[in-house]
Design a protein that fits this description.
Elements lengths: L3 E7 L3 H13 L5 E5 L18 H10 L3 H7 L1 E2 L3 E5 L11 E3 L10 E2 L2 H14 L3 E4 L1 E7 L5 E7 L2 E12 L6 H6 L2 E2 L6 E8 L11 H4 L11 E6 L2 E7 L4 E8 L12 H11 L1 H7 L8 E7 L5 E2 L3 E2 L3 E3 L14 H20 L5 H22 L9 H24 L6 H8 L5 H20 L10 E2 L5 H9 L6 H31 L35 H8 L12
Parallel strand pairs: 1-2, 1-10, 2-7, 4-13, 5-20, 10-19
Antiparallel strand pairs: 3-6, 4-5, 8-9, 9-10, 11-17, 12-15, 12-16, 13-14, 14-15, 18-19
Helix pairs in contact: 1-4, 1-9, 2-9, 2-11, 7-8, 9-10, 10-13, 11-13, 11-14, 11-15, 13-15, 15-16
Length: 566
Amino acid sequence: MESTYDVIILGGGLAGLTLSIQLKRARPDISILILEKREHEAAVAAHKVGESTVELGSHYFREVLGLKNYLEKSELPKHGLRFFFPSENKADIASRVELGPRDKPPTPSHQLDRGTFENELIRHTRSLGTDVRMGARVKDVDINKSGHTVTYVKGGEETKVSCRWIADASSRVSILKRKLGFAKDMDHAVNSVWYRLKGVIDIGQWSENETWKAYLQPGLRLLSTVHFMDKGYWVWVIPLGSKNTSIGIVADPAVHPFEDYNTYEKALKWLEKNEPLCYQMLEPLGRGDGLMDFKILRHYAHHSERVYSEDRWGVTGEAGAFLDPLYSPGSDFIAMNNTWLSDLILRDLAGEDISIRASIYEKTHLTLVDNWIPVYQNKYPLMGKAQTMTLKIFWDWTGYWAVPTVLFANNAFTDMKLLKELFSSPQSLGRKFGELNKKMQDLFIAFGEMDNEIFSHLYLDPFDLTYMYELQKAIRTPLSPDKLIEQISSNMQLLEKVAAEIFRRISSQVNGTPDDMKVNPYLMSLDRNEKGQPSYQGCSNGIGSDTSLAKEVGKMWFYKQAVPQA
């Protein structure tokens, strides 16, 4: 048997490589072996899905891993997430409702070419002393608290290595999940295909409409993660630093059967029918050698019953749970996942008993996943509804910046005192956040059933809403633990007021309720009583209207007259 390592990481993709760097930066003498089945470097611009990062993941790459200089030099800056909703003429991009920032967001994020980025991570972690073995296929893992054994095959030769810790970063192969039987289904059956095209695609050049072009400076739409949406699907267009472009289709099979777009030829026909402008602009670029790859993934969402164990193993990245690529959360969960796992490993190597931490970190991690599921679940049928989705997207961003991102940026997820205060009781801030978010996601579904008007020629910048700008900017402000709790409490009060204002606006339109009624956001409902009258549930002992916040929420509102009742 070969040497014993402190940590063996199964898989040399994004999750495993970043975990190794995080561990090495904290403890340079830690011995790490990464086993990666891929024989060679990743191909440029033709590798894996997941090119877009958002604020939490970007903070992890830039600040925790110290990759700020590399990212700013070698990867593209990202000009936010950008959404286009259907108008009467989807072939005219200028007629569609557009959501996205005009100016540079206050907190940076990036578009990643996963091939070049992972190759850089391999180089970087090797420079820190990590043993990375390419072409190494894991054959078996023997879990034993006194010392684990991993058997792998490289070049036809079988080798056994031992370690104190095993970190499974094997993506959907999910070595430990399969071996130990902790897979868990997730009720979110959505499919995806994606491919790369050679060349730069600037959607800012897809219209000659001068009003539309003048909404923001030339070249900024190019740098956005672009989403074209309609009922049951969204299509992404993402620029890559290699001067190529990633295209993806993500769709609910109940609306768009996978068989309609699961080959490149079918995907083109699907685009021609559903997104004619995308087809017109993209199809010529895929001719000849312009198409770099084409990949598919059916029913990509999956859950996990376990994440960390006091028996010195853990899973990270897609080897654990994966939700949905909308809003680009993959890097966020890798960041949180690796932070919990590396903390356990480092404390154990320092001689600390990690049993309580392992249990608390696992419960916190899985609770966050569970709280995130409603963001996506049953939402694809709403994607053609510009009003519902605008409210939802702005709400989702607000919650994301207000709670999990600011907590991560301030190292709260490994502070046991903070975790206890945030998540231990039913009235704790973290659990109230999950409850409030679920209530809002249910409200969007209910409103979506009545929201049938098609809007056009509208542009909305999330940072025109002062509270959204301030929340994103505040991510970069370091806070002490006491100040952090104060900030989360203040942010939760803001979220409750925003939820109440959104409900007031919707209920007034749908049920004719007063614009200034009090609302308890944890009880609000559009239900009617047996006489067909608004139930006013959640409208007593609630939050009163805030004039300035009502104006802010009003910027998201398109309807001028009442929505017809379902």
